Amino acid sequence: MKTAKEILEILQKKFPEIEFSLVEDEPSDQIIFTDALKIHEICEFLRDGEGLKFDTLMNLSGVDDANGEKQTNDDGSETIVGGTLSVYYNLDSIELNHKTTLQVSTSRESPKVESVNLIWRAADWHEREAYDMLGIKFLNHPDLRRILMPYDWEEGSYPLRKDYKDPEFYQGMKVPY
Amino acid sequence: MGLLDQEFLDSNIVIAKSDDLLNWARLSSLWQLSFGLACCAIEMMATSASNYDFDRFGVMPRPTPRQADIIIISGTVTLKMAIRIKRLYEQMPDPKYIISMGSCANCGGPYWEHGYHVLKGVDRVIPVDVYVPGCPPRPEALLEGLLKLQEKIRHETLRTKKA
C-alpha cells in the first residue's frame, strides 16, 4: 500500500526531468498531475516498477475542463477558446492492493496525449471514447476511430465538449428537437 | 365482426364483403418483427410472455422483416439505429404497420434536449400508425395500442390504399 505522495516521490526520483505535482484541492483522493507527452514511459514504469506494480487500468476518462475564455456568438451560443482538456487514469495494483490516479492536461485547440494502449490493452477503447467524445488525439494509438458516434459523423464535432452544438442534420435526419 | 361467433342455420357458405374479409384476416394475424431497442423492449417481451400473451391477438415474433406485418419501435432510436430501422422497414412487404412504443420513439423522451445521439421521434424516418405513450408503457398500454391498430386496419378499404 502506497499513498499518492509516496508514489510521487518514487516517480520524481526515477524521472528527474519530468514535472510532477500533486492535486490536493479536489474532494477525492490525491491526484498526480504530469506531462501528457511523457505519460507512456511513466505508465510503463508504474506497471513494472518495484513497489508499484500497477497491473490494471481501471478507467481512463477524458474531461473538458472548460477553463478557457468564453465567447458569445451571434446566435447566443457560447464558444470556449483556449484552456485545457484533461485525461484521468485510474490505476490499480491487484498484486500490492493499492490504487492511484494520474491526470494530464493538453491544449483545447490541438489536444495531444500519448497513448498507453501498449501498456494496458484496456486503454484501447477508453482512448477511442475520449477521442470520440472530446477529440483528444492519442499519439501512437493503433486504431484511433470513433467508437460510439457514427464513423461519418462530422469531422471536428465532439459531443461532450462544453461548447458543443448539434449539427442541423445528420444523413438527412433533423437532429435538434 | 361477428362473423364466426354466430351459429349458422346452413353450413358451408358465409357471405361477406371482401374488404371485411381481408381486413379481418390481416388484423387477426399481425406478425411482429422480432426487434427491440431499449427498456421498452423488456415490456414488449413481457407482453409477449404468458401473463399478457400477445399471441391471443395473433401477434407473434417473426425474425425476418420479409415475413413481418408490424414493427414495434420499442425504445430509444439513436441516429445510428435510425438508418437501420429505415432499412428494415423498407424490407417489409406491404401492407405494413408501425407502432411507436414509449416516449423515446415518440419524441425523443428524456433525451429531447441533450441527446446528441438520439433521433427525436421515429416518425422522422418512417410513418407511424399508433403512438403508445409511457416510459416505458406497461404491457396493458401496448395491448391497447395494438387494439387501436386493429381498429385502424378494420376500417381500411381496398380502394384507398395507403403504403
Q: Could you characterize what this model shows?
A:
The complex is a heterodimer of chains A (177) and B (163). Chain A is an alpha+beta fold and 177 residues long. Chain A has a single domain, classed as Beta Polymerase, domain 2, CATH 3.30.460.80. Chain A has three helices and eleven strands. A five-stranded mixed sheet of chain A has the order 1-2-7-6-3. In chain A, strands 4-5 form a two-stranded antiparallel ribbon. A two-stranded parallel ribbon of chain A has the order 8-9. The longest helix of chain A has 12 residues. Chain A is elongated, with a radius of gyration of 18 Å. The model of chain A has no long low-confidence stretch (mean pLDDT 91). The two termini of chain B are 24 Å apart. Chain B has 163 residues and is of the alpha/beta class. In chain B, helix 1 runs antiparallel to helix 5 and helix 2 packs across helix 5. In chain B, the strands form two sheets. A three-stranded parallel sheet of chain B has the order 3-4-5. Chain B is elongated, with a radius of gyration of 17 Å. Chain B is built from five helices and five strands. The model of chain B has no long low-confidence stretch (mean pLDDT 89). The chains are: A alpha+beta (177), B alpha/beta (163). Chains A and B meet through strand 11 of A and helix 3 of B.
List the helices and strands and how they pair.
The complex is a heterodimer of chains A (177) and B (163).
Chain A: H1 4-14, E1 21-23, E2 31-34, H2 39-48, E3 56-64, E4 69-72, E5 78-81, E6 84-93, E7 98-107, E8 112-114, H3 123-134, E9 137-139, E10 169-170, E11 173-174
Parallel strand pairs in A: 2-7, 8-9
Antiparallel strand pairs in A: 1-2, 3-6, 4-5, 6-7, 10-11
Chain B: H1 18-28, E1 31-33, H2 39-48, E2 60-62, E3 70-74, H3 79-91, E4 97-101, H4 102-107, E5 130-132, H5 139-154
Parallel strand pairs in B: 1-2, 3-4, 4-5
